[in-house]
Design brief:
The chain is an alpha+beta fold. It is globular and about 70 Å long. Helix content is 25%, strand content 21%.
C-alpha cells in the first residue's frame, strides 16, 4: 500500500534541540568498508528522477563483501548496505534549516524486517575544500551521465540527417538546445575530461574499494534517531530506523554544482529529461509532521578509539572516530 499521504510516522522530519526520546545506543555504529569498488559492476550507478543512487550488489557468498554496519541498538549481526541515495537539498532539517544536500545509507535488517538508514547532511559552505572521497562518486555518476548523453546525441544526429533530407526540423532544434548546456557542463567538469573517456588513469583511481564512512565523510559518531518511513513512494510508515548524523559532510561549492547538474540536467538515451526537480531546484520530500526523536551524544558514548585511550568517560580533549578531530554538532542539544 502507499502511505505517502497518510501522515502516520512519515519522514523526513525536523530535528532540533529538544529530543523527547532516549538514546539506547551503547557504542558508535561500527562500519566495515567491504570490497566493492566504485568502478566495478558491484556498485550500480543510477540517475533517477528524484535522486542519484548507488546500488550495492547483494552478496552471493562469503566474498566479496558489500559495505556493512554494526548498530548497537539492533541486536546481534552486521547488516549489509543496500543502496546510497543523494538528494538536493537535504530532506531532513535542523531547527528549520535545510542543508545543501543529504546522503542516505540504507541497510535492511532481515530479522527485524526493517530498514536502518544513516543520513549525512552535505554542507557546501563557500571556502570548503574539495572532498576527494566524494569526488570519486561524482566521477562515477559523470560516466553514467555522459554515456546517456552520447546515446542521445547519436539519436539527434539521426534526426538532423532527417531534417537535411527534408524531414522534421526537430533534429537541429534539439542539437541547438544542448549548446548552452554543453558550455555549462564543460565549465563544471573540465578537469575530468579523461574520466569521461574511461582512461587507464581514471579507472585506476576508481578501482580501489570505496569506504562510505571514510574520514572525509564521517565527521561525528553521534546522531538524532527516530522511527519513520521511506521518503519515496510507497513511503511505508514506521519501516525505517533513521539515524541523522549531527555533523555535516563538507563538500566544495563546485562539487554541489556538479552533483546537481548530473541530477537536474540528465537526459536518457531517448533525449528525455529525467529530473522531477521543482522551481526551487529541489527533489527533497518536504518535512512531515513532528515525531518523537532522540539524540545520541558524548553523554551516552564516546568513539571506540577514545574509549580505548581514556576509558568510558572519554578524554579531556575529545576525539572523533579513528582519533580524528572532534567536531561539535550542528546545534547544541542539552
Amino acid at each position: 500500500s502507499n502511505d505517502c499521504g497518510s501522515g502516520d510516522k512519515q519522514s523526513p522530519i525536523d530535528v532540533c534541540t529538544s529530543p523527547r526520546g532516549t538514546c539506547t545506543e551503547t557504542h558508535e555504529m561500527r562500519p566495515k568498508p567491504g570490497d566493492y569498488k566504485m568502478s566495478g559492476n558491484l556498485i550500480e550507478k543510477q540517475i533517477l528522477p528524484s535522486m542519484l543512487r548507488l546500488v550495492m550488489e547483494p552478496r552471493t557468498g562469503e566474498e566479496p563483501d558489500p559495505p556493512q554496519i554494526d548498530f548497537s541498538s539492533n541486536g546481534r549481526g552486521i547488516t549489509d548496505m543496500t543502496n546510497i541515495d543523494f538528494k538536493f537539498p537535504s530532506e531532513h532539517s535542523v531547527c528549520g534549516h535545510q542543508l545543501d544536500g543529504e546522503m542516505q545509507y540504507y541497510t535492511f535488517h532481515p530479522m527485524r524486517k526493517r530498514f536502518v538508514a544513516v543520513a549525512f547532511f552535505l554542507d557546501a559552505t563557500e571556502g570548503n575544500p574539495r572532498n576527494n572521497h566524494l569526488q570519486d562518486v561524482i566521477d562515477a555518476f559523470t560516466v553514467e551521465f555522459v554515456k546517456n548523453k552520447r546515446k542521445c546525441e547519436e539519436k539527434k544526429q539521426g534526426l538532423a540527417g532527417s531534417f537535411v533530407n527534408g524531414g522534421s526540423g526537430r533534429g537541429l532544434e534539439m542539437i541547438n538546445e544542448t549548446i548552452a548546456e554543453d558550455i555549462e557542463f564543460r565549465q563544471l567538469f573540465d578537469h575530468d575530461l579523461e574520466q569521461w573517456n574511461s582512461t587507464i588513469q581514471s579507472n585506476r583511481r576508481l578501482a580501489s574499494a570505496w569506504h562510505p564512512f571514510d574520514p572525509e565523510i564521517q565527521k561525528s559518531v553521534h546522531f538524532w534517531g527516530y522511527s519513520g518511513s521511506l521518503t519515496e513512494p510507497p513511503c511505508t510508515n514506521n519501516s525505517v530506523d533513521w539515524k541523522v548524523m549531527d555533523v555535516p559532510t563538507p563538500i566544495s561549492p563546485k562539487q554541489l554544482q556538479q552533483f546537481k547538474h548530473l541530477l537536474f540536467n540528465h537526459v536518457d538515451g531517448n533525449c528525455k529529461r529525467t529530473s522531477v526537480h521543482n522551481s526551487k531546484a529541489s527533489v527533497a520530500r518536504p518535512t512531515q509532521p513532528p515525531l518523537r526523536y532522540y539524540h545520541c551524544s558524548r553523554d551516552e558514548y564516546v568513539s571506540d578509539e577514545e574509549r580505548l585511550v581514556c576509558g568510558d568517560a572519554g578524554c579531556v580533549i575529545p576525539f572523533g572516530a579513528g582519533l580524528n578531530p572532534y567536531y561539535p554538532p550542528l546545534v547544541h542539544v542539552p
